[in-house]
Structure formats: C-alpha cells, structure tokens
C-alpha cells in the first residue's frame, strides 16, 4: 500500500503553519507592551492557526473518516479560501517589511522568515486547490461515480 501524495503535502502545510505561528507569536510577545506591530502580524498568526488546526485537519480527516462532512464543494472552497488568505497575508507582510539592509533585529528577521514560509504555504495551497477544483469538475461532469465493471453481460 502506497501513501497518496497528498498526505505528505498536508503534513508540510501543517508544519509550515506551526512555524508561522512560532515566528509571529515571537514578534507579538516581543512587542506586547508596545503597540508597534501591525495587524498584518496578527493576520499571519491567525493564518498559521487556521492552517494547522482547522484547514489541514479538515482537509485530511474529513474525506477519510467523515465523508458526509467532506462535501464536493466544501473541500475546494476551504482550499481556495486558505490559498487566498495566504496570498493576502504574505503579500501584505512583504509590503510592510523594510528592505533587508535596514531590517536588523530578531523580530524583523522573524517576520522575514514568516513571509517566506507564507509564500511557500501559498504555493502549496495553490497546487492542492488546483487538484481540488479538478476533482470537483470531474465530479460535476460524471455525477456520482459508479464502479466500472469489466464483466461483459450477455456475451
């Protein structure tokens, strides 16, 4: 029995989400009493939590153990929404950050790393969104898939 390719991708998506939680959580804790960090940092913190604790578990577990929760429209919807969130998050953070030559300190470096991991998350969710949409299109064309039979009846 071989492992489907989607499970390692989901594991990497969850891992990158946890990494973004750690990086942005560090920045929030560093500037806790100073209101000098942007809401973009909070958004990336939310995205890490959304990805690691809601989206990836739903996308991984529901098709296997809870097929009624894995509606044909819900899976691609969660994929695409998460992809759009990550795109907005890493673009907003990249636009907010200073250039690398003026970005000194651990908090700024953490935000740079969170931006890079956010870009990787966006790419991963773009790929899985594509396959989710392709599966949805095939499902809509064929309706409910019936098992193929190789038996020639009446021959």
TrEMBL record:
Q: Where is the MARVEL domain?
A: 7-131
Q: Where in the cell is it found?
A: Membrane
- Signal peptide (from-to): none
- Please list every transmembrane segment annotated in the UniProt record, as residue ranges: 12-32, 44-66, 73-96, 116-137
**Swiss-Prot/TrEMBL keywords:** Membrane, Transmembrane, Transmembrane helix
Record's GO cellular component terms: membrane
What InterPro entries does the record point to?
Answer: Marvel
How does the UniProt record describe the way this protein sits in the membrane? Multi-pass membrane protein
Name the UniProt record assigns to this protein: MARVEL-like domain
């Amino acid at each position: 029995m071989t492992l489907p390719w989607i499970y390692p991708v989901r594991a990497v998506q969850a891992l990158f989400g946890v990494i973004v939680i750690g990086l942005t959580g560090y920045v929030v804790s560093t500037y806790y009493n100073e209101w000098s960090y942007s809401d973009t940092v909070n958004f990336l913190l939310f995205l890490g939590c959304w990805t690691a604790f809601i989206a990836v578990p739903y996308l991984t577990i529901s098709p296997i153990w809870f097929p009624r929760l894995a509606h044909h429209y819900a899976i691609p919807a969660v994929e695409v929404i998460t992809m759009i969130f990550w795109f907005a998050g890493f673009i907003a953070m990249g636009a907010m950050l200073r250039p690398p030559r003026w970005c000194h300190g651990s908090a700024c470096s953490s935000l740079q790393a969170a931006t890079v991991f956010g870009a990787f998350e966006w790419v991963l969710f773009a790929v899985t969104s594509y396959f989710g949409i392709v599966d949805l299109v095939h499902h809509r064309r064929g309706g409910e898939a019936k098992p193929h039979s190789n038996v020639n009846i009446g021959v």
